Amino acid sequence: MACYVGCASLFVQRQLSDTNSNKLKILFLAKISKGNLFSSLMSVLMSIETELKLSLPPKKANKLIQHPMLQSASHTTQHLYNTYFDTPNHDLLQHGVGLRVRRIGDKRLQTMKTAGTVLGGLHQRQEWEMEISGNTPDYSQFPKGALPAWCSSKKNRKKIEALFTTDFTRTTWDLSLNDGSKIEVALDQGEIKTKTASIPLNEVELELKAGSPNVLYKVALTLQKTLPLTIENKSKAARGYALYQTNSLQFQKAGSVNLNPDMTADQAFIHIIWHCLEHLQANEEMVLYGEDIEGVHQMRVALRRLRSCLSFYKSLIPKKTYAKLYKDVKWMTDVLGVARDWDVFALNLQNMQAQSSPLSLSHQLLEDLQTRVADFQERAYITVRQAMRSPDYSRLLLSLSQWLMQQSWRRKLGTKSLQRLDSPVMLFASQKLESHYQRICQQGQNFAQLNTEQRHELRIFVKEMAYGTRFFAELYPHKAVRPYAKNLSHLQDELGVLNDVNVATDLLNQAGLDENASARHFINGWYAHQHITYLTSLDSACQTFFEQKTFW
Hints:
- The protein is of the alpha+beta class.
- It folds into three domains: 1-44, no CATH class; 47-244, Beta Barrel (Hypothetical Protein Pfu-838710-001), CATH 2.40.320.10; 265-547, CHAD domain, CATH 1.40.20.
- The protein has 18 helices and 13 strands.
- It has helices spanning 37-44, 61-65, 68-71, 91-94, 154-157, 214-224, 236-244, 265-282, 284-289, 294-312, 319-354, 361-388, 391-406, 415-421, 425-444, 452-472, 478-510, 518-547; strands at 2-5, 9-17, 23-31, 46-55, 74-86, 97-104, 107-114, 117-119, 122-132, 161-176, 182-193, 198-210, 230-231.
- The strands form two sheets. An eight-stranded antiparallel beta barrel has the order 4-9-7-6-5-10-11-12.
- The protein is globular, with a radius of gyration of 27 Å.
- The two termini are 45 Å apart.
C-alpha cells in the first residue's frame, strides 16, 4: 500500500489482483488537519479485506496448531468480544453494511464492512476501522460517504441496537511465504450469541496481507491434506443475523452471465466458471438444511453448466488438466444426479396417483411404492449431504478456484491456442455455437430413426447448446436470442422427458420391484404412453428448431 501525504490531503491507494489479473485500484481522498496525521489516517483509512474462511471440527483444533506450516511462524492469542449493531428489521444489512464494535481489553474498535463478494470461500469486501471510546458506534468518526444515506437521519440511527455478539478466542500466525506473500492464519474458537440462542464457532480464516489471492488457496489446500477443512461461505455476521431471525431458505437459479463484447474469450471463460461456482454455492444451504428438492436440481444444473463451459473450451485446455477437472466435477454431479433421479421419479408417481381413482387398486399400489421410493430418496440425500460436508467437496472448490486464479491453462498452450483465448469473446462464441449447432443438425435430422443411445447423445448436445446460448446471450441482440433460446429450451425439455422414461426402469430395478408386479405393469404403461406422446411432439420441436434462423 502506498501513501502520499500532503499538507491538506491524504491519498491512500491499495492494489489487489483480481480473478482476471487486472489491478483493482481504490483511491480514497480525505482532508486531514495539520498536526493530527496518525489519528486522521486511522479514522478515514479504507482497506479491501480479502480472506478465505474454512470450518474445522473442534476436535481437530490441536492438529491445526501442531501443523508443520505453522510451527516456525510467530503467533499470538487474544480474546475478542464483538457486538453487532443493526435495527430489528435489518436496515443496515439491507443497505449492504455490517457494523460492529470490538472489545479487546480496554480498547474499543468500531468496524464497518460492505457485503462484498464471496466466491469459492474467498471473501472480498471494503472495510473501515477506527478506535472509539465507548461500547456503541460513534457515527461521527466515519468518513463522509462511507455510511449509507439511510444513516444520515438521526431518527433512523436511533433504531439501531445491539442484535448479537461473537465471543471467541483467536490464535493467529503470521506466515511469510517464499514468493514474498504474507498471510495471517487465524483460528477462532467460541460462540455466536443472541439474547435467546447461541451456536458454536470454530473456524479458520486465512487473510491476505500481501500478494495474490491465489496463495490463500495454496495454503488452504496444503492444510487440507491433513485436516478436514471445509469451505465456510457465511461470515460470522451472516450467521449471527440468521440466529437472530430465522428466515425460510430459498433455492437460487443461475441468472444472467452478463458478458460484454470487450472481453476476450479467456476473460469470458473465467467469468462463466465463477458464475457457475456462485450458482452452485448459493444452493448449498437449501440442500444441507432445507426441504425443497429444487436445491439439489439447481446444484446439479450449476455443475452441468460448469462442465458445458469446460466442453466449449475443451480445445483450449491442456488434455490432462481437462480430464482431471471433468472427472472431479463429474463425481459431485453424479452424487447429485442420483438424488435428482429419485426426486423426479417420486414426482411422476404422484402424478400417476393423482390421475387414478382413490379407490382403485392402482392407487393403493402406487401409494405402497411411494413409501419405498421415499426411503431411497432419503438415502440419496444423506449421501449428497455427506459428500458436501466432506473435505473432497471443499477440495474440489478450492482447487477450481486456485486454477482460475492462476490461469495455469495458459502455460501449456501453443501460440495459436493463446491467440484464440485472447481473441474477442464474440468471435469465439459464434464459432463454438455454430460448431455445436452443426453437431445437433447432423445428429437430429433423422430423429425418428435414432435408437435410445443416439437420442441420449442428442440430448447431451442440445443441453450443452442450451447452456452455451445462455452463457453468450448478452453478446447478441436480445430479440434474436430470445426465440431461439425458447425453442432450444423446449427441445431440451422434450428430450428430458424421454430420458425420464429410461431412468425409471433402472430405478424400479433398484427399488426391487418384481418384473411381474402389478404396480410395475401400471407404471410401464404410464411411461409407454408418455414415450409415444412425447415422441410425436418431439419431432415437431426438432423441425421448429432446425427451421429457425441462428442468432450468431
